[in-house]
Structures are given as structure tokens and as C-alpha cells.
Amino acid sequence: MKILLMGHPNVGKSVFFNRLTGAKVFESNYPGTTVDFMKGWMCIEGEDVELIDVPGTFSLEPKDKAEEVSVEMLEENRDCVVVCVLDASKIERGLYLALEIIERGYPVVVALNMWDVAEDKNIRIDVAKLERILGVPVVPTTAVSGEGFKELVSKLKASAPVKIEEVIKNAGGGESAAVSG
Amino acid sequence: MQEVVKVPQSVDERWDLIDKISRQTVEFGAYKHTLKDAIAELTVKPLTGIPVAIAVIYGFWSFFCDFAGTLFTDGFMVRLFDEHWLPWLQSVFPGGLGNPLYALMIDAGHMEDGVLVASDNCFEAFGVLTSGLFVPFGVVLWAVLAFYLIFAILEDIGYLPRLAVLVDTVLHKIGLHGYAIVPTFISLGCNVPGVTAVRPLETRKQRFMMITLLSVFVPCGAQIGIMQDLIPELMGWIFLTLVIGYLGFGFILNKIVPGKSPEIIMDVPPYQMPTFKNVMSKLWIRTSKFLLVAVPFVLLGCLIVGLMYLTGAMDWLVAVFGPLLMGWFGVPSETVAPLIAGFLRKDLAVGMIGGLMEQGIMTTFQVFTSVVLLCIYFPCLATFALMIKEENWKELLGSLASLVAMVFIYGGLIHLVGIMLGVA
Fold first, then answer.
1. Cβ neighbours of B338 (radius 10 Å)
2. Distance CA A5, CA A81 (A)
3. Of A157, A139, A143, A167, the residue nearest A46 (C-alpha)
4. Chain A residues with CB inside 8 Å of B285's CB?
């Protein structure tokens, strides 16, 4: 099994990588810290799993040399599970990349990282509903403190490819009771 | 793995879907302005941000000088090396002054009124076991530690993107984005990761310009550490000269290099409390990398330069290049030796200039000119190797051509200014 960490720049992919593999990849609080991919190993239920940390990318149409690396890694690893790391406080932006990856037929697990920041900003996310619509596991995480990692790891094996038509159907017309002023 | 689904959605359809999803799942509560936001604003608005930036950089510099320079190097290491290590080696190492092996390993000595005299400090001695150890462990290690400690904290707080926003206007005038401040700052520690850090820049033109400017005008932490120890009084002038060169030649490169310099939109992340663990981990990785790469090169540099002196190769080079150095740049022909060492390690080379200075060969202005020349004439070997990897051959040739042009134009200009001021 292979896991690819993807997401926007500066959402905490490297923190995920270091926490999960015990490696020491540079973590900094600015976009563009990681400019090349990094491989590491972790163990899930006795199985050795390869984890790949890639530079942050906004979409699958690369805009710079670092993004090219990420898209290449995604294409080279057709058999991987993608952990799509989102900034929970800017969820719409991150979903764009997540949908692109889902459309390409990869099994995805969505990590809503920086959950603490979203809470600070008073942003509430209905995780269960998001999971129902996307059809993939969605886990709130705070990577710097390690919250949500156990749950994330436990859901890695449960992820399976989803047809985008399903997501469109689940999303329906978008009318909702959850909207508030 | 099943067949890959052809992307069925257009960009608009995808955003439309996201809109539907988020309307059902995300709820934005009332947002309270917090203290964090207030601080965040104060550090990006020019009126308050610029004084903050100056304070941060000044604080950084003071810590660098006090911790590395005064406390460790002057307070402890210089005494250890000059008063104990050097005299001890001079007394126990077989051979003695004039012996080739002794010259190579301990002290080559220097001529004073026709007599070969022993060195009394580790900058002058220039043996593998004296200067070769003093430069990395006596001076540079502490500078590197101090630099990376503060740098890691600034990185983790998230200050760098704010600095990028502040300098954006200035850097746009030379066709670069504010983000360029990130690779520049990283290069002040070491040019090697600095050159790698230009990858997030969008166009080839921006990457090319940035790599060229970095490798020419940004001195690394090791070099700064030695300069600060040897010639603290000249540091301001040296930095000013380099900044003017960086901006001036950036402006020119932007005019003559084909291609575009589009706007890059960069996220300014929220401030975060740095964690002790992460700061220490980065400090350890960077410092150990420095020791691993720098120490062998410094020792090798000492050995090569020592051998060149012994075999007469250096005298030959001095005779050949001396007139050019003297005539065009106004520095003594002996500067050839540090320039040779500079290919391997700039810190070692600056140390050699210190040695020449203490022998009274150079005037203050010549020290200034030669240190600036040493910064700009060629990237160190490690940086050059990386440039070969990061640039295609056309860009590499372009970088080298700009480098040669910049060295001759700028070096000559400095000489000219010196002549006009009557100090050269």
C-alpha cells in the first residue's frame, strides 16, 4: 500500500508526514517549504506502508516547478491512496483539488486539517454530511498537536474510488437547512 | 486499479459543485477580531509593518553578533585556538617553521623584513590543523547556529510571508515578487537550499533571475560569520553594496531577460506559536548538514592552497592574475589565494583575507573591495553544482555570463568610487 499526501501549500502535509513516519522533513509556517517529494514508511496493522510527501499544489494543472513534482508523483503512483489535506478554515479551495483527485479515480481520504484554526474562526463543518456527499472518509485533524491522526490512519484502508456522478447526485441542488446568516 | 475516469467536469462545473457541497456542510459563525489578527495586521501594514521589520532584522543581527561573535567566538574560541591550540601544536608538531609538512598542517609563517616569522593567530597560520579547524569550529559553527535558531523561529511563527508582502512593491520594480524574500533569507544561511527554494516561482525568467541574483549577491551565513568576526566595522558598507548590487542588477536583468514576471498570489498564513521540538529539529538538521559539507571542504581548501604555495603554483597565478586584480579591481595580487580558496568555501577565503589584513598587506578599502569581490565572483562549488541541476544549459550559460559581467562592472565601479573618494 502506498499513500500520497496532497494538498495546498502550507496546510501541514509535512507535519503529517513527520508525525506518521517519524521522519524529519522541514516544517515551516509559509507556503513553499517543501519543493521536492520525500518518501517514508509507516506501519498500519502490521503492514508496511509507504508514505510520500509532495510539494503543495493548488490544482492538478501545475503552475510552477514544485507543483509539477506533485502532479508527476500522483501520475506515477496510480495504485496509491491519496490523503488530501485541506485547510479546514478554507474548505472550498481545498475541495477543488480533492474533487480533481476523486475525478481521476483515486481512493481518497480527506483530512480537514487546522481544525483548531477553523474553530477559532467560528467555522463549523458538518463532517458526517460532507462524508455522505463525497462518499469518502473525512477526518478533522490538528496536525501540530496530533489530534485526529488515529482516526485518519484507521480509515485509510476503508477508502475506495468514488464516481464523481455520485458526488454530484449526493450534493443535489444544494438547498440546505444548515445555511445560516 | 480501475480505468481512470476522464475528467468529466469543467472548472466552472467543479466550482458549482463545491458551492453546493459547502452550502450544506459549512457554517460560518460570527467572526471575532482577535489579538492575533491585530498583530497580524500591524506587521503587514506599511506604516507599522516597516518599523516592525526593521526591529526584527535589527534584533536578528544583534543576536547573531552577540551570541556568535562576542560570546562564543571572541569570548571563548579565539582564546582557545590562539592561546592554547596554536602554540601547543607549534611546540609539539615535528618539523618547525620552513618544513613543508609543518607549513601545510600547522603554520606557513610569513615574511617580515626578509625573515620568516611564525604566526600568532589561527587566521594567519593557514595550516590544515590550525585555520582548517578554527574557521569551521571556532567561528562559523556559532554563526550558523545563531542564524538558524532565529531563522527557524521566524519561519515557524509565519513572519516571512509578512515580510514578503512588505517588500513586494520594491521587488516588483525589479520584476520579482515579494516571495523572493524567502529564498533570499534562506540563502543568507546557505545558498544551496536558497537556490532550491526558488522552485515555487512561476516562470523560468523569475527562477533564472532569482538563482543568478542569489548566487552572486547573497553571502551565506558562514561567510557572514567570518566577516562579522574579522571586520565588524565594514559590515554595514558590505551589506549596502550587496543590496545595491542585488537591486540594481535585478533591475537590469529584468529588462534584458526575455519572459514574463507575472504576479504570484501568496497566502499569508495565520501566526503560530513555534514548537520547541520543531525548532530544535530544524536547527539540528541544518547544523549537522553544515558540518558534514563544510568541514571537509574547508580542510581540503587549506590543503590545496597550502600545496599551491609550496609548489609555486600560487606564485605563478599571482604573477598572471595580479595585474588584472591590481589594475581593474584595485586589490593586491595576493588576493588570488583567497579567490582560489573561495571556489571551495567562502568562509575560508574570507579568513585568508583576514590573514592578509593582519600582515598589513591590505588597506581598509582593499579589504572591503576584496570581501565584496569574494561574495560576487563565483558561487561556492556546492551552489554551482546545484545550479547545474536546477538550470538548463542555456540558463546556466546565461547565469555564468551575467556573473562575469556583474563582477567586472560592479568590481570596477567600486574601484572607481574608491578612486574618486580618494581611498583606493
1. 24
2. 9
3. A157
4. 24, 26
Note the ipTM here. 0.86
Q: Which pLDDT score, from 0 to 100, does residue B200 have?
A: 84
Mean pLDDT over B408-413 rounds to 93
What grid cell was written down for B217? 549577491
Strands A108-113 and A38-44: unpaired
- B219-232, pLDDT tens digit by residue? 999 999 999 888 99
Degrees to nearest 5, angle at CA A68 with A152 and B196: 95
B362: left (phi over 0), alpha (psi -120 to 50) or beta: beta
Return the residue of A nearest to B37 by Cα. A121
pLDDT band at B294 (very low <50, low <70, confident <90, very high): confident
Using a CB-CB cut-off of 8 Å, the residues of chain B touching A127 are 25
CATH for A2-171?
Answer: 3.40.50.300
Give how far A45 is from chain B: nearest CA, Å.
22
Task: Determine the pLDDT at residue A178.
Answer: 46
A96 with B26: Cβ contact below 8 A: no
How far is C-alpha A69 from the geometric centre of its chain's CA atoms?
A: 17
Model confidence pLDDT, tens digit, residues B186-219: 999 989 899 988 988 888 888 999 999 999 999 9
Facing residue for B278 by CB, picked from A27, A163, A173: A27
- Rounded to whole angstroms, the Cα distance separating B103 from B317 reads 20
Confidence label for B361 from pLDDT (cuts 50, 70 and 90): confident
Q: Is B30 helix (H, G, I), strand (E, B) or coil?
A: coil
Task: Say if residues B208 and B198 touch (Cβ distance below 8 Å).
Answer: no
Predicted model pTM: 0.85
Cell matching residue A99: 474533487
- For an interface test with B, give the residue of A1, A27, A28, A78 to mutate (most B CBs within 10 A): A28
Joined together, the cell numbers standing for residue B134 give 578554527
Residue A6's closest CA among A64, A70, A63, A65? A70
**Axis-axis angle for helices B181-189, B141-157 (nearest 10):** 150
Supply the pLDDT for residue B8: 59
Q: What is the maximum span of chain A, computed from C-alpha positions, in angstroms? A: 48
| Res. A180: pLDDT tops 60 | no
CA distance B314 to chain A (A): 41
Is B201 close to A64, i.e. CB distance below 8 A?
Answer: yes
